[in-house]
Amino acid sequence: MCGILTKNLINMKFYRTGYGKELIKEIEVEKYTENSVWIKSSYTGKVSRRARHSNYYNFWETLEDAKEHLKENYNRIIDSAERNIEKAKANLEALNKY
After folding, report:
1. Domain residue limits at 21
2. Does residue 87 belong to any structural domain of this protein?
3. Number of domains forming the structure of the chain
4. Is the pLDDT score of 2 beyond 70?
5. Is 50 exceeded by the pLDDT of residue 84?
6. What's the predicted TM-score (pTM) here?
């Protein structure tokens, strides 16, 4: 049954993270499964399926889950930036050998 069970809850609130002006946006979904959500387009009015987790957007059932995802993501970005800074400092020091 993995990913097959569909919850038919009209206007259930989900929280979207990803690209855009807002870090977290509350949206309404028509239905959802473990792997997908169905969202009505504000432009066409048509309902279309979206992956719950992709490279572009992530859809979360709770605000807390959305915030935790973003915190983990930003902490990874910070860790990576700090490693890059340390590497750049080491490279600057290495220049003194020349």
Report:
1. 12-95
2. yes
3. 1
4. no
5. yes
6. 0.77
